[in-house]
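A protein record pairs a chain with a discrete description of its three-dimensional fold. The shape at a given residue is found from the number at the same position. Here is what such a record looks like in full:
>
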Amino acid sequence: MKKLFASLVSVVMMLSFSSVGFASEAPTSLSADTKSEIKLHLTKDLGVSEIIANSLIEKIESGELPDSDNPEKAGTGVTSTSTESDKTVARTVFPDGSVIISTVDTTNATVEVVEPKENNIEPGGMTTMGSPTGGWTESGSGYKKFYNTTVYEESTLVQARFQADYVLVNGSYDYISRVSDGFAKGIGGYCTGQNLFIIGTGYQTYDSPARATLAFTYVGINGTWSTDFKLQLYVMNDSATSQLDTF
């Protein structure tokens, strides 16, 4: 019997860049429109003050990455988590004031709850260890299905999201059944090559989570550099987490 978590969602975020990324010593001239786009995103979407927003824009123009998007600054941020109704938001603030926000939102999701039953195996269902025995009925130990949960991540330079259906099975292996509506946007740049898919069978194993991925390429400021990203959903041990990283 696996451990039940008090919170449905714990969100862990890591953002890193590939070796073809931003040149840290190459100044970049930003247009007025690009500066306005970045500043609006920082102040409105990420809740950064105007003073810090201006400082981050100057940092980008000087050829440096914001800490939130710099792999060398991974782990230097301070994270606080808040939960309002069916939304859990993790906000990580870095030393230069840049921010990463991770959200797993079930506000508009349809939730189906089946309480535990006395029998651990149902005909045509699944054993409590998650081994298929035919059919679609879950374990008699009970489960909770989430339809159309929003998985959303944003940093100083990237926004990405998708919808997911997943099942948290009490005392058994969780799984992801469907993903849809993948979307990625570059701030001050653009995203291309978006591909959304479930990894393998979609089931967690003894030591690995069920996983779904939105892969995309971000082309950065003025098209002078690019990097590949994954927005990933992990479902395991009655918990859903998201992560943004490179591959």
Summary: The helical segments are 32-45, 50-61. Residues 200 and 211 are 8 Å apart (CA to CA). The radius of gyration is 20 Å. The chain has two helices and eleven strands.
